[in-house]
Amino acid sequence: MKKLIAVAMGLALANSAQAAQVLVKVLQESDPIASNVVTEVPVKSCRIEQVPVYGTVSGGTKAKPSVADKAAGAIFGGLLGSQVGSGDGKDAATLLGAIIGAEMVEGQVGKPQQQQVITGYRNQEICEMIMQQKTMEKVTSYKTYIEFGGQIWQLNTPISYAKGDFVKVNIDITMAN
């Protein structure tokens, strides 16, 4: 019975693959493998533009109020004045309010007006960051040389190794048919 189990296990092992992990010594420093890689990089882009310079100027001539403006001011002033007095004083307050309202319109409309105008131009540097595609040479992996089974092998590794470092190598062993 024991012989039968041993033979069955031997046949099972013979028909299946076996994996082993072995430490091997690096023969020399790894050589970098470079590839062209397209990446986006920020680039500062500047240009000179002319921008307006604003200033305040007074209007040279006084604007004359229209008859309608004066009439509206007199009516508004008269209404306010009628609210103040009583009896004969009410009529006087209404008249005085109408006169003051018309004069206020004359004073406001007749003032020279301030205007904001472009007085000139100046050069200004305007900068912005733009993304540009750039092809760059970049190290993507390393050629690492090891000795295993009396032969020298080359591995592509993601990191660089120095001479004398140890590397773990997976070995799959299968039975030849």
Notes on the protein architecture:
The chain has 177 residues and is α+β, with helices and mostly antiparallel strands. It has two domains: 17-46 and 126-177, no CATH class; 63-111, no CATH class. It is 29% helix and 49% strand. It has three helices and five strands, in the order αββααβββ. The chain has helices at residues 2-15, 67-82, 88-109, and strands spanning 18-25, 31-58, 114-148, 151-157, 166-173. The strands form two sheets. A three-stranded antiparallel β-sheet has the order 2-3-4, with no helix packed on it. The protein has a two-stranded antiparallel ribbon with strand order 1-5. β3 (114-148) and β4 (151-157) form a beta hairpin. α2 runs antiparallel to α3 (88-109). The longest helix is centred in the middle third of the chain and has 22 residues, at 88-109. The two termini are 28 Å apart.
Average pLDDT for all residues: 80
Structural class given helices, strands, pairing?
Answer: alpha+beta
- Total strands: the figure is 5
The parts where pLDDT drops under 50 for at least 5 residues are 1-14
Shape designation: rod-shaped
**Continuous helix count:** 3
